[in-house]
Amino acid sequence: MNNRLPPLNALRAFEAAARHLSFKKAADELHVTPAAISHQIKALEDHLGVRLFHRGNRTLALTPVAQASLGKLRGGFAQLAAAVEDMRTYDKATILSVSVTPSFANKWLMPRLHRFVAKHPDIEVRITASTKLVDAQTMTLLQDRELEDVELGAIDVAIRFGSGHYPGFEVEKLSPSTVVPVCSPRLLEGEHPLREPADLVHHTLLHVDPIYRFEYQSYWEIWLEAVGLKGKIDPVRGLHFNHAYLALEAAVDGLGVALTQSILAASDIMAGRLVAPFPQKLSMDFTYYLVYTAETARRPSLVAFRQWLFDEIESMGSSEFAGMLA
């Protein structure tokens, strides 16, 4: 029995010609000449010692032996392609590249990342702090009201703050958006203790200046109006920062009161570094989203990270957020 396989190019030529029943169409698909296809088929027939095609006047038909073997050959090519893809993506299966906004990375992800690493020691995590969300193919602005470029390229998944409108991507909301004033416990005491929102007149407001065009009002302006203090406290005065984590660090240091996303303040509140002095909170339209492409959605490292992420956020409902805004 001759176990020597015929050349792969000859098998590919046969499969393409058999599928199209045309040497010319097979040649176009494989980027060769019809004469080359004919030569490969003849060589394969000589190697096997059988005829594979009935050649007529401008017609081509499979012989019975060709019909019987074609299905297994196609299956073999499919398995070969799958094996090559496994080799190509082997390293990617154990690498997770995450692009995350600086504040979410600093105040939420990093304090918890050790739990993901402990649960999935086989996954190599690569964190990039960035405000961009890009698609290497499109390189287009998402829409007129959002400044972020599209950029996922070598990134498996991104966490972004915005409206959730990211055309061409898979998008999942991480949590509802709630903002709340937070401060150091030290500000609850002293000459002007924080007891009610009107007491803010004696304290410095800590601002996060908007980096998105769609944020025309500051959080403080909206919150003060909601609690009936519009015109009584200047919503612009105070210290200004370009990232929420900087405002939160200033709040921890006792420099003033920050109005921030609850999800960002949760760890500091649980640790006692911050407190929420007032029960008033405000729901906002913009929040954090998980963004990835359809191509990476089934990658094992991404599947594991997504599940862990939502498990962590779900646990916050019964632990970190419990009692924080009584």
Uncertain runs: 134-152, 318-326
Helical amount among residues, as a percent range?
25-40%
What is the rounded Rg? 31 Å
What characterizes the major β-sheet? 5 strands, mixed
What's the helix count? 9
Q: Name the beta content range.
A: 15-25%
Tally of extended strands?
Answer: 14
Oligomeric state as shown:
single chain
**Structural class by helix and strand composition:** alpha/beta
The side-by-side strand order for the widest beta sheet comes to: 4-3-7-14-8
Q: Taking all residues together, what is the mean pLDDT?
A: 83
Reading the helices and strands in chain order gives HHHEEHEHEEEEEEEHEHEHEEH
Shape: rod-shaped
First-to-last CA distance: 81 Å
Can you characterise this structure?
With 326 residues, this protein is of the alpha/beta class. Helix content is 39%, strand content 19%. It has helices spanning 8-20, 23-30, 34-48, 64-93, 102-119, 219-226, 244-252, 262-270, 300-316, and strands at 53-56, 59-62, 95-100, 124-129, 141-143, 146-149, 157-162, 170-173, 178-182, 205-208, 239-241, 257-261, 282-283, 287-292. The strands form four sheets. It has a five-stranded mixed sheet with strand order 4-3-7-14-8. Strands 11-10-12-9-13 form a five-stranded mixed sheet, sandwiched between helices. Helix 1 crosses helix 2. The relative contact order is 0.13.
Layout of helices and strands, plus pairs?
Layout: H1 8-20, H2 23-30, H3 34-48, E1 53-56, E2 59-62, H4 64-93, E3 95-100, H5 102-119, E4 124-129, E5 141-143, E6 146-149, E7 157-162, E8 170-173, E9 178-182, E10 205-208, H6 219-226, E11 239-241, H7 244-252, E12 257-261, H8 262-270, E13 282-283, E14 287-292, H9 300-316
Helix pairs in contact: 1-2, 1-3, 2-3, 5-8
